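One thing: mind reviewing this one?
=====
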Amino acid sequence: MTRRELAHWVQQPVQVVVGLVFPVMMLLMFSYLIGGGQGVDGDFKDYLVPGMLTMTMAFGLEATMLSVTQDLGKGVIDRFRAMPMTSGAVLVGRSIADMLQSVVSLIGMIAVGYAIGWRWHEGFASFLGAVGLLLLLRFAMLWIGIHLAMVAGKPELVQAVQILVWPVSFLSNAIASPESMPAWLGAIVEWNPMSATSTAVRNLFGNPGSTGDSWATQHAELLAVAWPVALVAVFLPLAVGRFRGLSR
Protein backbone atom coordinates (compact mmCIF):
# COMPACT_ATOMS: atom_id res chain seq x y z
CA MET A 1 0.00 0.00 0.00
CA THR A 2 2.87 2.40 0.72
CA ARG A 3 4.46 1.54 -2.65
CA ARG A 4 1.14 2.32 -4.34
CA GLU A 5 0.99 5.77 -2.76
CA LEU A 6 4.61 6.50 -3.65
CA ALA A 7 3.99 5.40 -7.25
CA HIS A 8 1.53 8.29 -7.52
CA TRP A 9 4.49 10.66 -7.13
CA VAL A 10 5.78 9.45 -10.51
CA GLN A 11 2.34 9.32 -12.13
CA GLN A 12 1.25 12.74 -10.82
CA PRO A 13 4.43 14.82 -10.63
CA VAL A 14 2.60 18.15 -11.01
CA GLN A 15 0.60 17.54 -7.83
CA VAL A 16 3.76 16.63 -5.92
CA VAL A 17 5.65 19.68 -7.20
CA VAL A 18 2.78 22.02 -6.34
CA GLY A 19 2.67 20.56 -2.84
CA LEU A 20 6.38 21.25 -2.42
CA VAL A 21 6.45 24.68 -4.07
CA PHE A 22 3.38 26.18 -2.36
CA PRO A 23 4.88 26.43 1.17
CA VAL A 24 8.13 27.75 -0.32
CA MET A 25 6.16 30.51 -2.09
CA MET A 26 4.41 31.32 1.19
CA LEU A 27 7.76 31.58 2.97
CA LEU A 28 9.22 33.87 0.34
CA MET A 29 6.06 35.98 0.22
CA PHE A 30 5.94 36.59 3.97
CA SER A 31 9.69 37.14 4.12
CA TYR A 32 10.13 39.55 1.21
CA LEU A 33 6.76 40.88 0.03
CA ILE A 34 4.65 41.24 3.16
CA GLY A 35 7.37 41.44 5.79
CA GLY A 36 6.39 41.78 9.42
CA GLY A 37 8.07 41.10 12.69
CA GLN A 38 5.92 43.30 14.89
CA GLY A 39 6.57 42.29 18.48
CA VAL A 40 9.50 40.06 17.49
CA ASP A 41 12.98 40.56 18.94
CA GLY A 42 15.78 39.76 16.52
CA ASP A 43 15.80 38.80 12.85
CA PHE A 44 12.27 38.24 11.55
CA LYS A 45 13.46 35.42 9.26
CA ASP A 46 14.65 33.49 12.31
CA TYR A 47 11.15 33.89 13.75
CA LEU A 48 9.29 33.26 10.49
CA VAL A 49 10.95 30.08 9.18
CA PRO A 50 10.08 27.84 12.19
CA GLY A 51 6.51 29.13 12.00
CA MET A 52 6.29 28.39 8.29
CA LEU A 53 7.66 24.88 8.89
CA THR A 54 4.80 24.38 11.33
CA MET A 55 2.23 25.73 8.90
CA THR A 56 3.55 23.39 6.20
CA MET A 57 2.75 20.44 8.45
CA ALA A 58 -0.81 21.71 8.86
CA PHE A 59 -1.40 22.46 5.18
CA GLY A 60 -0.59 18.81 4.40
CA LEU A 61 -4.01 17.89 5.84
CA GLU A 62 -5.69 19.03 2.63
CA ALA A 63 -3.57 16.77 0.40
CA THR A 64 -4.34 13.80 2.65
CA MET A 65 -8.07 14.49 2.47
CA LEU A 66 -8.00 14.89 -1.31
CA SER A 67 -6.18 11.58 -1.87
CA VAL A 68 -8.47 9.62 0.43
CA THR A 69 -11.68 11.13 -0.97
CA GLN A 70 -10.53 10.40 -4.53
CA ASP A 71 -9.96 6.74 -3.62
CA LEU A 72 -13.37 6.63 -1.97
CA GLY A 73 -15.10 8.22 -4.94
CA LYS A 74 -13.52 5.81 -7.43
CA GLY A 75 -14.33 2.75 -5.30
CA VAL A 76 -10.64 1.93 -4.88
CA ILE A 77 -10.85 1.56 -1.11
CA ASP A 78 -13.87 -0.74 -1.44
CA ARG A 79 -11.85 -3.02 -3.73
CA PHE A 80 -8.96 -3.02 -1.29
CA ARG A 81 -11.27 -3.96 1.57
CA ALA A 82 -12.50 -6.94 -0.45
CA MET A 83 -8.96 -8.26 -0.87
CA PRO A 84 -7.25 -10.68 1.56
CA MET A 85 -5.12 -8.06 3.29
CA THR A 86 -4.84 -6.65 6.79
CA SER A 87 -7.70 -4.19 7.26
CA GLY A 88 -5.37 -1.49 8.54
CA ALA A 89 -2.93 -1.73 5.60
CA VAL A 90 -4.76 0.93 3.56
CA LEU A 91 -4.63 3.53 6.32
CA VAL A 92 -1.11 2.64 7.48
CA GLY A 93 0.20 2.74 3.91
CA ARG A 94 -1.44 6.13 3.42
CA SER A 95 0.08 7.48 6.64
CA ILE A 96 3.60 6.21 5.85
CA ALA A 97 3.54 7.75 2.37
CA ASP A 98 2.28 11.05 3.79
CA MET A 99 5.01 11.11 6.41
CA LEU A 100 7.66 10.45 3.74
CA GLN A 101 6.30 13.33 1.69
CA SER A 102 6.36 15.52 4.81
CA VAL A 103 10.04 14.71 5.31
CA VAL A 104 10.74 15.79 1.71
CA SER A 105 8.75 19.01 2.28
CA LEU A 106 10.67 19.77 5.46
CA ILE A 107 14.03 19.23 3.76
CA GLY A 108 13.01 21.59 0.96
CA MET A 109 11.70 24.26 3.33
CA ILE A 110 14.78 24.07 5.57
CA ALA A 111 17.03 24.41 2.52
CA VAL A 112 15.12 27.46 1.26
CA GLY A 113 15.10 28.97 4.76
CA TYR A 114 18.86 28.53 4.95
CA ALA A 115 19.26 30.10 1.52
CA ILE A 116 17.39 33.28 2.54
CA GLY A 117 19.44 33.71 5.70
CA TRP A 118 17.72 31.68 8.43
CA ARG A 119 19.98 29.78 10.81
CA TRP A 120 19.54 27.51 13.82
CA HIS A 121 21.85 28.23 16.72
CA GLU A 122 21.69 25.09 18.86
CA GLY A 123 23.30 21.66 18.47
CA PHE A 124 22.34 18.89 16.07
CA ALA A 125 20.40 17.04 18.79
CA SER A 126 18.16 20.09 19.28
CA PHE A 127 17.75 20.33 15.51
CA LEU A 128 16.57 16.71 15.34
CA GLY A 129 14.25 17.33 18.31
CA ALA A 130 12.65 20.26 16.46
CA VAL A 131 12.18 18.18 13.31
CA GLY A 132 10.68 15.41 15.45
CA LEU A 133 8.10 17.80 16.92
CA LEU A 134 7.18 19.04 13.44
CA LEU A 135 6.67 15.48 12.17
CA LEU A 136 4.67 14.62 15.28
CA LEU A 137 2.30 17.48 14.48
CA ARG A 138 2.08 16.27 10.88
CA PHE A 139 1.26 12.76 12.07
CA ALA A 140 -1.63 14.15 14.11
CA MET A 141 -2.86 16.29 11.22
CA LEU A 142 -2.84 13.41 8.73
CA TRP A 143 -5.09 11.29 10.96
CA ILE A 144 -7.45 14.24 11.27
CA GLY A 145 -7.37 14.44 7.48
CA ILE A 146 -8.03 10.72 7.01
CA HIS A 147 -11.01 10.81 9.36
CA LEU A 148 -12.51 13.96 7.85
CA ALA A 149 -12.01 12.56 4.34
CA MET A 150 -14.02 9.46 5.16
CA VAL A 151 -16.71 11.60 6.76
CA ALA A 152 -16.84 13.94 3.76
CA GLY A 153 -16.60 11.17 1.16
CA LYS A 154 -16.23 13.52 -1.83
CA PRO A 155 -13.25 15.57 -3.09
CA GLU A 156 -15.55 18.58 -3.54
CA LEU A 157 -16.11 18.78 0.22
CA VAL A 158 -12.36 19.18 0.84
CA GLN A 159 -12.85 22.87 0.03
CA ALA A 160 -15.00 23.22 3.14
CA VAL A 161 -12.11 21.95 5.25
CA GLN A 162 -9.69 24.31 3.50
CA ILE A 163 -11.84 27.20 4.71
CA LEU A 164 -11.24 26.01 8.28
CA VAL A 165 -7.54 25.10 7.96
CA TRP A 166 -6.42 28.55 6.90
CA PRO A 167 -7.98 30.53 9.79
CA VAL A 168 -6.70 27.99 12.36
CA SER A 169 -3.22 28.18 10.83
CA PHE A 170 -3.09 31.96 10.81
CA LEU A 171 -4.66 32.13 14.29
CA SER A 172 -1.30 31.03 15.66
CA ASN A 173 2.08 32.58 16.37
CA ALA A 174 3.54 31.14 13.15
CA ILE A 175 4.00 34.54 11.49
CA ALA A 176 3.16 37.07 14.22
CA SER A 177 3.89 37.35 17.93
CA PRO A 178 0.89 37.13 20.31
CA GLU A 179 2.36 40.13 22.16
CA SER A 180 1.50 42.31 19.14
CA MET A 181 -2.19 41.26 19.29
CA PRO A 182 -5.08 42.31 21.54
CA ALA A 183 -4.87 40.50 24.88
CA TRP A 184 -7.92 38.30 24.30
CA LEU A 185 -6.75 37.26 20.82
CA GLY A 186 -3.18 36.67 22.00
CA ALA A 187 -4.48 34.31 24.71
CA ILE A 188 -6.35 32.25 22.10
CA VAL A 189 -3.31 32.18 19.84
CA GLU A 190 -1.02 30.97 22.64
CA TRP A 191 -3.20 27.89 23.22
CA ASN A 192 -3.38 26.94 19.55
CA PRO A 193 -1.62 23.56 19.08
CA MET A 194 0.29 25.04 16.16
CA SER A 195 1.56 27.84 18.41
CA ALA A 196 2.90 25.28 20.86
CA THR A 197 4.86 23.55 18.11
CA SER A 198 6.09 26.83 16.63
CA THR A 199 7.32 28.08 20.01
CA ALA A 200 8.94 24.76 20.94
CA VAL A 201 10.67 24.53 17.56
CA ARG A 202 11.97 28.08 17.88
CA ASN A 203 13.34 27.26 21.32
CA LEU A 204 15.11 24.16 20.02
CA PHE A 205 16.50 26.02 17.02
CA GLY A 206 17.64 28.88 19.26
CA ASN A 207 15.53 31.34 17.26
CA PRO A 208 13.62 34.32 18.72
CA GLY A 209 10.16 33.48 19.99
CA SER A 210 7.27 34.83 22.00
CA THR A 211 8.26 36.73 25.12
CA GLY A 212 5.02 36.18 27.03
CA ASP A 213 4.96 34.65 30.49
CA SER A 214 1.76 32.62 30.11
CA TRP A 215 1.71 28.95 31.10
CA ALA A 216 1.27 27.90 27.46
CA THR A 217 4.33 29.85 26.35
CA GLN A 218 6.52 28.72 29.23
CA HIS A 219 5.60 25.05 28.68
CA ALA A 220 5.56 25.02 24.89
CA GLU A 221 7.66 21.85 24.59
CA LEU A 222 5.24 19.94 26.79
CA LEU A 223 2.22 21.17 24.82
CA ALA A 224 4.00 20.47 21.50
CA VAL A 225 3.97 16.80 22.50
CA ALA A 226 0.67 16.70 24.40
CA TRP A 227 -1.49 18.34 21.71
CA PRO A 228 -0.52 15.99 18.83
CA VAL A 229 -0.68 12.92 21.08
CA ALA A 230 -4.18 13.95 22.22
CA LEU A 231 -5.30 14.57 18.62
CA VAL A 232 -3.96 11.19 17.50
CA ALA A 233 -5.66 9.49 20.46
CA VAL A 234 -8.97 10.96 19.32
CA PHE A 235 -8.83 10.84 15.53
CA LEU A 236 -6.88 7.63 14.86
CA PRO A 237 -9.55 5.41 16.51
CA LEU A 238 -12.27 7.47 14.81
CA ALA A 239 -10.61 6.99 11.43
CA VAL A 240 -10.13 3.24 11.95
CA GLY A 241 -13.72 2.85 13.14
CA ARG A 242 -15.04 4.82 10.18
CA PHE A 243 -12.94 2.73 7.79
CA ARG A 244 -14.23 -0.54 9.21
CA GLY A 245 -17.81 0.69 8.95
CA LEU A 246 -17.63 1.88 5.32
CA SER A 247 -19.47 -1.15 3.91
CA ARG A 248 -21.97 -1.56 6.74
Observations:
- The two ends are 23 Å apart (CA to CA).
- The chain has a mean pLDDT of 83.
- Residues 147 and 239 are 4 Å apart (CA to CA).
